[in-house]
Design a protein that fits this description.
Radius of gyration: 13 Å
Order of helices and strands: EEEEEEEEEEE
Shape: globular
Largest sheet: 7 strands, mixed
Strand content: over 45%
Helix content: under 10%
Number of helices: 0
Distance between the termini: 40 Å
């Protein structure tokens, strides 16, 4: 069974940093595009960042650009710096073999999410 598992969430104060991790079980996703999404209560799931399988190219939502960094080896990471209360959400790791994923619906594999709460 293919599974993605996120970890590293928690409750922090504004300005703090967290590093989220996404590990795969059942198979590897070395050839997949990996993405991070987040969903706050009452809101739609939104794109945060993605990283390609080979080139390592990255793309970020404007809301996190300059603060968050996605990286990967055998684990996918999301380094989150200068956290803001508006970053509070459940963060999800996702994978897809589509060439140029843009939306959550284009990702085929998902983790269960990890809660990130940022207090003011």
């Amino acid at each position: 069974q293919v599974q993605l598992v996120e970890s590293g969430g928690g409750l922090v104060q504004a300005g703090a940093s967290l590093r989220l991790s996404c590990a795969a079980s059942g198979r590897t996703f070395s050839n997949a595009v990996m993405g991070w999404f987040r969903q706050a209560p009452g809101k739609e799931r939104e794109f945060v960042a993605r990283i390609s399988s080979s080139s390592g190219s990255t793309y970020y939502a404007d809301s996190v650009k300059g603060r968050f960094t996605i990286s990967r080896d055998n684990v996918v990471y999301l380094q989150m710096n200068s956290l803001k209360p508006e970053d509070t959400a459940v963060y999800y790791c996702a994978a897809t073999y589509r060439a140029h994923p843009r939306r959550a619906s284009e990702y085929d594999y998902w983790g269960q999410g990890t809660q990130v709460t940022v207090s003011s």
